[in-house]
């Protein structure tokens, strides 16, 4: 029998394979499916189907990387420790900031999406003050208050323990799978506008470019990123070496199939007359898409499927709430791991009697509320999150290849092993950097500015109050991060004007080649800068203990 956790104990291992699978699916099927297909269609037209295929396959490669790492080190909040394995404590600290900013911002994204959908549900907005402003699409004071209440409820449920959290996650998971599947079936049965799939000769170039820009800016990659929930909860699984690969890979494959069919159903269901009038790029101007809760509800009502529209109104509340809830669960594990590793105060790693890091939960709630203030619209938040989460995922291939070299299989078991890692690892790193690049100059300027500011404050603190600690920082293992971040920003600055908002000196598709070449150079430098073999093995042994 598992020993109950207390304030000084360990996480309870109560999660089975279904719980981990639904945790990852809960992160994948959120607000993205309600708006993503329309946004992707606006950017890539009929070719938007390929956005979901390419995005799903790209994230699947990253999922395979994390399946190997997580089964080697099945710990809650394990991603905080991965950079430490390969490059030491300084890089781990920087990447912890990236992870922190990414994870705690997801739940606010989802509750803002709930406000956006609830605000336009028929009848409700006639009786309540607006939750989202009609002119600026930003949450109002009332909407902000409701967002805070939702985040507080997510936190309170999580404090009851992982069993309660997984029960709620599993229940929501069945619903979140059933409603999109039902939507696909009903739309395909009732709408067959095959002509919508034709592409005008003059639209090919625009739509082809849109395949790639929509990965970051239409919510495509954002929708898939939730697969790592199973990795963050590995330390609470009853059989992580078996359960994690099934949950991680299975959730991405299920999400890929579901999103491709959702996109196809959306394309075939749009009224050809409206499409002829506005074009794919002007879908947002269609009256029903403006007034109804999401494009799928508008399509259902247009086809006379009123009952389905009302199910979608309900799902517009349930799906984002479920995703926000599961990210609240995992963000506390990330914060707890940061406390455990010394990046944040160590009391944040303490557990309550239910085996939950309670101080980490409170900190996650406070920071999540703060994220509601400067970025109050879903679209702006998605662009920011896609960039920062892609960067947080990008360290995985670097760590994997470093561990393959320093800790071979005969010295440590790998329950799941990525095939052709020497080829697929660099490809995964390139994919992550392309997603960051396509997030655009404006968002990346903000993001790298935040990380740069945090680094400056940290170094200034060391200079003023811990001079020996400043001089002992392992720059030789971390220096490559500065040209890495700076180079990514510079590529955006000189990149395509239409795709990333750059100066246009490096147009598409040359910019893709430049990002790929830059990524390979950075990976080479990163692997050369890895910590010595003895230090890496010693840290791995301490984590075993």
Structural commentary:
The protein has 545 residues and is mostly helical. It has a single domain, classed as Amino acid/polyamine transporter I (Up-down Bundle). It contains 26 helices and no strands. It has helices spanning 17-28, 32-44, 48-72, 82-87, 89-119, 124-127, 141-158, 162-190, 204-217, 220-224, 229-232, 240-269, 272-278, 287-291, 295-302, 306-341, 358-371, 378-406, 421-438, 441-465, 467-471, 475-478, 481-494, 497-500, 510-528, 533-544. The radius of gyration is 23 Å and the shape is globular.
In short:
This protein has 26 helices and no strands. The protein has 545 residues and is mostly helical. The chain starts with 16 loop residues before the first helix and ends with a helix.
CATH superfamily placement? Amino acid/polyamine transporter I
- Sketch the major β-sheet: none
Helix count?
26
Look up the CATH topology: Amino acid/polyamine transporter I
Features:
545 residues, Amino acid/polyamine transporter I, disordered N terminus, 26 helices, globular, 72% helix, mainly alpha
């Amino acid at each position: 029998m598992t020993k109950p956790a207390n304030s000084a104990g360990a996480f309870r291992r109560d999660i089975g394979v279904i719980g981990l699978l639904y945790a990852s699916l809960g992160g994948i099927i959120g607000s993205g499916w309600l708006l993503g297909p329309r946004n992707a269609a606006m950017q890539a037209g009929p070719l938007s189907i390929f956005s979901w295929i390419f995005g799903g396959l790209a994230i699947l490669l990253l999922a395979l990387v994390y399946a190997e790492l997580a089964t080697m080190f099945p710990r809650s909040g394990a991603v905080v420790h991965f950079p430490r394995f390969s490059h030491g404590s300084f890089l781990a600290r920087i990447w912890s900031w990236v992870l922190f900013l990414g994870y705690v911002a997801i739940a606010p994204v989802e509750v803002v999406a709930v406000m956006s959908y609830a605000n336009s549900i028929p009848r409700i907005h006639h009786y309540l003050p607006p939750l989202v402003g009609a002119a600026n699409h930003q949450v109002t004071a009332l909407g902000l208050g409701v967002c805070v209440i939702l985040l507080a409820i997510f936190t309170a449920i999580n404090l009851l323990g992982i069993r309660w959290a997984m029960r709620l996650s599993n229940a929501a998971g069945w619903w979140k799978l059933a409603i999109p599947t039902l939507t696909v079936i009903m739309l395909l049965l009732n709408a067959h506008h095959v002509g919508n799939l034709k592409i005008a000769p003059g639209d090919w170039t625009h739509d082809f470019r849109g395949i790639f820009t929509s990965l970051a800016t239409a919510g495509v990659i954002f929708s898939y990123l939730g697969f790592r929930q199973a990795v963050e909860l590995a330390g609470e699984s009853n059989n992580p070496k078996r359960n994690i690969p099934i949950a991680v890979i299975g959730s991405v494959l299920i999400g890929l199939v579901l999103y491709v069919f959702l996109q196809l159903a959306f394309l075939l269901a749009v009224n050809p007359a409206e499409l002829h009038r506005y074009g794919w790029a002007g879908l947002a101007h269609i009256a029903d898409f403006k007034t109804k809760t999401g494009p799928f509800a508008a399509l259902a009502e247009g086809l006379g499927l009123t009952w389905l529209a009302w199910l979608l109104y309900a799902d517009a509340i349930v799906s984002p709430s479920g995703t926000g809830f599961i990210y609240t669960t995992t963000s506390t594990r990330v914060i707890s791991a940061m406390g455990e590793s010394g990046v944040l105060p160590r009391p944040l790693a303490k557990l309550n009697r239910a085996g939950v890091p309670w101080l980490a939960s409170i900190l996650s709630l406070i920071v999540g509320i703060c994220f509601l203030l400067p970025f109050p619209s879903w679209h702006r938040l998605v662009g920011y999150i896609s960039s920062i989460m892609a960067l947080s995922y990008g360290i995985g291939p670097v760590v994997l290849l470093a561990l393959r070299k320093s800790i071979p299989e005969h010295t440590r078991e790998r329950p799941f092993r990525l095939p052709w890692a020497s080829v697929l690892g660099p490809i995964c790193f390139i994919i992550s950097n392309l997603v960051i690049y396509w997030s655009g100059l404006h968002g990346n300027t903000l993001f790298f500015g935040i990380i740069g500011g945090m680094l400056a404050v940290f170094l200034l603190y060391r200079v003023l109050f811990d001079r020996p600690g400043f001089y002992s920082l392992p720059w030789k293992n971390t220096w490559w991060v500065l040209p890495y971040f700076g180079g990514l920003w510079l590529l955006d600055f000189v990149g395509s004007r239409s795709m990333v908002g750059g100066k246009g000196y490096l147009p598409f598709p040359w910019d893709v080649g430049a990002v790929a070449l830059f990524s390979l150079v950075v990976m080479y430098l990163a692997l050369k800068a890895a910590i010595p073999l003895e230090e890496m093995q010693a840290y791995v042994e301490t984590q075993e203990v």
